[in-house]
Each structure stands twice: as structure tokens, then as C-alpha cells.
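Why this split exists: single-chain examples teach little about how molecules sit against one another. For that reason, every record in the complexes split bundles all components of an assembly together and asks for one structure covering all of them. Below is a record exactly as it appears in the raw files.
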Amino acid sequence: MNYVGVVLLSHSYDLVKGLEALLKQIQPDVPLSVAGGTESGEIGTDVFQIKKAIESVMNPKGVVILFDLGSALINAELAIEMLGNNKDIRLADAPLVEGAYAAIIQSGCGSSIEEVIKAAEGAKALNKL
Amino acid sequence: MEVGIVEVKLWLQKLNRKLQQEKEHLTDLDQAIGDGDHGLNMARGFKEVSIKIENTDYETLGALLKDTGMTLLTKVGGASGPLYGTAFLKAATSIGDKSSVTLTDLSEALEAALEGIKARGKANLLDKTMIDVWEPVIHYMKENRESIDWDEVIRLSNEKMEATKELEARKGRAAYLGKRSIGHIDPGAASSNYFFVELADVLKGVIKE
Amino acid sequence: MMEQEITVTIKDGLHARPAADLVKKLGTVSSAVQLYSGQKEYNPKSIISLMSGTIKEGETIRVVVTGSDEEETMAWLNDFFAGKTS
């Protein structure tokens, strides 16, 4: 079975590595990759690292990218452009932790890319208390 | 007048020196309204550019500008990496295989770079960004074709950078501050000012020779 | 429509992993399912709905299942909340 791939993107490598470990425990079947920090290991984002992360989980059902802030978005858009503006690579407008959690579970249900994005973006309206 | 590989290399080396000198100043500006990394990011990125181009012989301006853009994309962590990187890549495509260009060609390449920045950053004039320097300077350069007065470029670039002080940020981290961003020069406009002032300095020198 | 009170005996309650299993399983059934825990209502086919609260071990919840496969679904839910599935 194919699952929608998920990419976690942050200015911090440690942050996405930690989130990856959490999500792998919940749903080990979904293709999941991370990109965080610059080439030299500093805080920031690196377009080539993002491109590689997308390629590593690319599959026929598509890939959803969750990101933190600012330049992460600019670099993610640039990476998508470098991959030929493939319509199956999509950005989710969602909080990184809760959105990724929802996305990974939705993807694990075998859902379509639209449903995975909807689940991730649903996390924006989440009341935790 | 023609602008060749020697002039562009000289410009990029001078720009690098300027960014190393002004690293603290850019950081101060960015600490006021951004996340405080602009000076470090630009200094790091252009230092790598400087090393890369110093040790490479280029046949075409396109290849030189492309290397510059790719280096900035990889080595600059913040938003300035993809923005300046895209600018150089668009300019490289515009100039292509030529080893020297007229001022009109140069202005067109810079205009393509500006369009790239606008598309990538989804920003427009008066959003308090680097575009507030780029757009008026390139407009002036395009209008004056082969008879650009480089002192006027320097004057205009400085004036437009200073003018960002009065604007309210609508893009980037500074936009979170809203009206509190007023009273500070935009750090991207400041680094863009160095970009054009160093270019003008080099090309002024070329005319004199 | 079937309605039943079920006491949750999943160890540590409905935390992330069982919640994922629940959403996944219910995605394959056609009945509508609602869970009521105190004042809160959950749609257990939506992970976001489940993330909006916590269902603890030892808690009794009201389960309402409506649809053509309600009997099998209710039976599965009984096993699930007893921690007997997967």
C-alpha cells in the first residue's frame, strides 16, 4: 500500500529529528523525512536539503510538507520549483507539531493527499484545553 | 560601455568586504525588527562566494552569476539566502553565455533578478523590504540605458534605504511588529544598498580608466 | 442506531498510538460513530477531533454507532476500548 509521504521542515535539525522519532513511534509505515538547519549545522534552512528530503519520500500518492516559519516557506517553495512544480508536492498551512501528528495518522489510513492536508490544517483550529 | 567578468568579480569581492565590515551594523538593524541573523547570514554567504569565485576561471558571466546564486542558496540560512540566491540565478539566466554586457543588458538582468525576488518573497514596493531599494534603482538604470550616472545610483539607493525607516513592515519577521517596525531601516534594504553602492563604485572606476 | 456505555481499559488511555489505530480502523467502516466523554463529543474518524481532548484509562464513555455495519463496528469498539485489538 502507498501512503502520502510527509516532510518535516524546520530551522532546527534537532527539532525535526525529535518530532520524527515521536511520529515514527506512532506510525512507522508512512514515508517520513526531515530537513532542518543549514549545511554547516547552524540554525536555518537549506533548499538542497529540503529537495533531497522531498525526493526521499516521493511516491504516487504525493508528498505533504510541514514547516515552521519564514525562510522555511521560501526555501520549500524554491525546492518545489526545482522539482518542476510537481502538483503532488504540497505545503500544509499548519502548526508543525500538531499538524505533522494529524498528517501522519491520516496518511497512515491510506488517505489521499487532500485528506492528509485537511487533517494537518485542521490542527490550526485545535483547542487543546 | 561593457561590463565583463573582471568587473563583476571585483564588484562581488568588494561587496563581500563591505558585508564583512558591516556585519555588526546589519545585525543591529535586524535585531531591532527581525531575528538578528541578517548580518551573519550575508557575511557567511558572501565569504563563501568570494572564495568560490576567486579560485574559479569563468568563460561567461552567466556561469559566474550562477555559481554566486547557488553558493548563496546553500550557505545562507535565513530568508536572504533564497532571495539573493534567486536574484543571482535569474540574472545569470538573463545574461546567459555572454562574457560581457552593455549597461542596458545589465539593467535588464537586474530587472529579471528583481522579478525573481518579488515572486519568491511575495512582496511589493513599500512593504519595507529590499524591494524598496531594488525597484527605484533599477527603474532609474533602465531609463538611462547607456548613460547611467553612478553617483545618482548611489544617492538614490541611499535615499530609498533611509526611506524604509518610515514604512510599516508588511512582510517577513518584521511584519509581526506592525507599527513598531516604523523608525528602523529595513536590514534587507540596507544590504541591498551595499549591493548597488558597490556596483556603482566599481563601474564608476571602469569609466575613468 | 446502537448506543452503549463502554469503560476504557486501554493501558494509559487513548494516547497517540491507539488514537491512530482507531482513526485508521473507523476509516474503513461506513457507520457514523460518536463518542461522548463528560461534556465532550468526539468524532473518532477525525484525528483532529480526538486530539482536542483526552480519554483516560478507567473512564466510561458513551458510544453511538449508526449505519449498516453498526453491529460489527460496536463489537470492534468494545474490543478496542478493552485494549484487545492489535
